């Protein structure tokens, strides 16, 4: 981006996104909301996205897989969110594979498939026989 004279966005940390989604620490949540809902371009990495997902699904918050996938998809869909190192459309599509239905993909696999797919990868070596739920081809090692 810099080569064209456009500055890259500042990255946003998972803790800011969590305050925004959870609205659990009032002073930080209002600052996070102001930032996330602004027009400022915010760089989002797959690692930060995964961190938010794992925290929401973890033992403290216990969000369902569908609720986590929906929250992540809503973040990705924001106009000012710039995906760093992955394609937003692929990530959104991958997260849809996590919604409730028999055989839904897990969040980690969906994000892995989105990142790999963003690089043109269509197959993965995995022992996980259900990885194909993400839409990526699975090759046994």
List the helices and strands and how they pair.
Blueprint: E1 10-11, H1 14-22, H2 26-36, E2 42-45, H3 46-57, H4 65-77, E3 81-84, H5 88-96, H6 107-118, E4 123-125, E5 137-139
Parallel strand pairs: 1-2, 2-3, 4-5
Helix pairs in contact: 1-2, 1-3, 3-4, 3-6, 4-5, 5-6
Summarize the structure.
This protein has 141 residues and is mainly alpha-helical. Helix content is 47%, strand content 11%.
Protein model, in words:
By secondary structure, the chain is mainly alpha-helical. The chain is 47% helix and 11% strand. The strands form two sheets. Strands 1-2-3 form a three-stranded parallel β-sheet. Strands 4-5 form a two-stranded parallel ribbon. Helix 1 crosses helix 3, helix 3 runs antiparallel to helix 6 and helix 4 runs antiparallel to helix 5.
Helical amount: 40-55%
CA-to-CA gap between the ends?
37 Å
Strand order, biggest sheet? 1-2-3
Please give the CATH class: Alpha Beta
CATH architecture: 3-Layer(aba) Sandwich
By DSSP (H or I, 4+ residues per run), the number of helices equals 6
Mean pLDDT: 91
Tally of distinct domains: 1
Ranges where pLDDT stays below 50 over 5 or more residues in a row are none
State the total count of DSSP E strands.
Answer: 5
CATH topology: Rossmann fold
Name the features.
141 residues, mainly alpha, Rossmann fold, 3-stranded parallel beta sheet, two-stranded parallel sheet, 5 strands, 47% helix, 11% strand, globular
């Amino acid at each position: 981006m810099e080569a064209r004279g456009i500055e890259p966005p500042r990255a946003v940390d998972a803790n800011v996104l969590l305050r925004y989604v959870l609205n659990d620490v009032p002073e930080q949540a209002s600052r996070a909301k102001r930032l996330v809902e602004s027009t400022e371009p915010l760089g989002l990495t797959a690692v930060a996205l995964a961190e938010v997902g794992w925290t929401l699904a973890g033992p403290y918050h216990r969000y369902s897989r569908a609720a986590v996938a929906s929250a992540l998809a809503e973040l990705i869909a924001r106009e000012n969110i710039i995906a760093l190192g992955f394609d937003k459309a692929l990530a959104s599509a991958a997260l849809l594979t996590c919604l409730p239905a028999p055989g839904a993909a897990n969040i980690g696999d969906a994000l892995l498939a989105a990142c790999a797919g963003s690089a043109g990868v269509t197959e993965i070596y995995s022992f996980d026989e259900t990885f194909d739920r993400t839409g990526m081809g699975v090759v046994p090692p």
